[in-house]
Specification:
By secondary structure, the protein is of the alpha+beta class. It has a three-stranded antiparallel sheet with strand order 7-2-10. Strands 6-3-9 form a three-stranded antiparallel sheet, with no helix packed on it. The N and C termini lie far apart (48 Å). The relative contact order is 0.18. Helix 1 packs across helix 2. Helix content is 35%, strand content 28%. It has two domains: 73 residues, Jelly Rolls (Sandwich); 40 residues.
Length: 130
């Protein structure tokens, strides 16, 4: 569906089916993996990073099952929200809630990875008990 690195000008709303979001991770000079970082299902959105400023896609999105998505381009959405400010408020409120949830989940993942890294490298013994 989406390729990391391509230019994006729209967001997508999952109507049916399941999708996987993944990114390239370099483990060594010539060794890369593409782990899934989350799964999406009906009602989820993706691609919103490029919504109001065309920018490079930051992840891959691939279908896990058959399904349907609705693509909403930047210009059409902007025009609609300008003409319908009440719906625009609700749209941005919902988008803000989604982004806060994603940021919170991302922070928790970073904390878990940091704790794992400290433990694996036996850093705990070098830290003070404070």
């Amino acid at each position: 569906m989406l390729q990391e690195g391509e230019i994006g000008k729209s967001l997508f709303w999952v109507l049916e089916g399941n999708l996987r979001v993944s990114v390239h991770v370099s483990l060594e000079e010539r060794r890369k993996v593409r782990p899934g970082i989350c799964d999406l299902g009906p009602g989820d959105i993706f691609g919103e990073v490029c919504l109001y400023k065309s920018s490079i896609r930051t992840a891959y999105v691939t279908a896990v099952t058959d399904g349907n998505v609705l693509e909403i381009d930047e210009a059409s959405l902007s025009n609609y929200l300008d003409e319908h400010p009440a719906q625009g408020y609700l749209f941005y409120k919902g988008l803000f809630e989604i982004l806060i949830l994603r940021l919170t989940n991302g922070n928790q993942r970073v904390e878990s990875l940091l704790a794992w890294g400290l433990k694996v490298h036996d850093i705990e013994r070098h830290l003070s008990a404070n």
